Amino acid sequence: MRLRLSCCRALVEAAFLASVAIGSLYATVRIGLAPREPADGVAVIFAPWTDAGAALTRAVEAGGRFVRYGGYDFIVVIIPEAPDYVSRVNAAGALFVVDPEALAACSAVFADAAQDGSQIDRSQVDRSQVNRSQIERSQVR
């Protein structure tokens, strides 16, 4: 009986630790990749099982103009038309609203590594995907 109780307790503790780890990762991504200037464009990430049509409809109905799809059909790059777009698209079911430049950098690294089977190397990031206006703004500051 005591062995069974300790086994159940260990499972509960492991489940708790796993949920804390997943929650921490979610919060880190949500805060760390948040767009600095949402008016310049955002990448809206829906659940991976969301099809392209549903992702586009949800992203545009929240008050934005379609720019393009991200690396996958459930990622939509949008230019918001309303200042409260981020909260509205989150209410429409978005998992994350991130800076599209950060998303492009991450996508390029993972895509290159997946194609050649090598380890991920930060030098593989395609710098041509960085928005010129973002570079100019950082040089003015």
- The unreliable regions are 117-141
Order of neighbouring strands in the sheet with most strands: 2-3-1-4
Order of helices and strands: HEHEEHEHH
**Distinct helical segment count:** 5
Q: How many domains, in number, for the residues? A: 2
Report strand %: 5-15%
Main β-sheet, in a few words? 4 strands, antiparallel
Class by alpha and beta content: alpha+beta
Q: What is the number of strand segments?
A: 4
> What is the share of helical residues?
40-55%
What's the rounded overall pLDDT mean?
74
The dominant shape is: elongated
Task: Write a concise keyword list for the protein shown above.
141 residues; alpha+beta; 4-stranded antiparallel beta sheet
Model description:
The chain is of the alpha+beta class. It folds into two domains: 1-32; 35-140, no CATH class. It is 52% helix and 13% strand. The chain has five helices and four strands; from the N terminus they run αβαββαβαα. It has helices at residues 2-32, 52-61, 85-91, 100-116, 132-140, and strands spanning 42-45, 64-69, 75-80, 96-98. Strands 2-3-1-4 form a four-stranded antiparallel sheet. A hairpin with a 5-residue loop joins β2 and β3. The model is unreliable at 117-141 (pLDDT under 50).
